[in-house]
């Protein structure tokens, strides 16, 4: 017979183990820094700072097989305070349309997707960390974490939601920004 106190103790141990992240995580295909951080309920900038030497200067570029050290939630929050976003989020030239509209007086080009310090860069950094295919648990997607309704209302192809190119996401952002200004993002992102 199992003593009831033993069951409670075992349940407590399992709950504590679930709350404590593993010491290391190996990056798998399809992983993103923000996705890994969300899985362990820590801030992605803290995860990046804890692994900057492994990841390098661009938090959007993690490689399959990289072994990342998982900081505790408290440590990740502390490290996140020291995070400085890259000067600009780089978008490959092949992903940028030549007809992309300017956003807030800044052209989007094959160079940095947004000038350092711009609202657009702030949204990208805060929402997705530059991961064009980031999908969060509530169904928000991409560089700008569009909801499906915002995506469609701003002219995004409904069939592309969840798999759009960075160029299309930039175009939809420009349309949403022209229509609604900062209101879809600013209250949430502190931009």
| Strand order across the largest sheet | 1-2
The level 1 CATH classification of the largest domain is: Mainly Alpha
Biggest sheet architecture: 2 strands, antiparallel
N-to-C order of helices and strands: HEHHHEHHHHH
Q: Please tell me how large the radius of gyration is.
A: 19 Å
As a percent range, the share of helical residues equals 25-40%
Q: Whole-Å distance between the termini?
A: 59 Å
In short:
The chain is mostly helical and 191 residues long.
Question: Which descriptors would you attach to this protein?
Answer:
191 residues, Membrane-bound Lytic Murein Transglycosylase D, Chain A, mainly alpha, two-stranded antiparallel sheet, Lysozyme
Structural overview:
By secondary structure, the protein is mainly alpha-helical. The protein folds into two domains: 4-80, LysM domain (Membrane-bound Lytic Murein Transglycosylase D, Chain A, Roll); 93-189, Lysozyme (Orthogonal Bundle). It has a two-stranded antiparallel ribbon with strand order 1-2. The chain has helices at residues 4-19, 33-39, 44-50, 52-55, 73-80, 119-127, 148-153, 166-180, 186-189; strands at residues 24-26, 67-69.
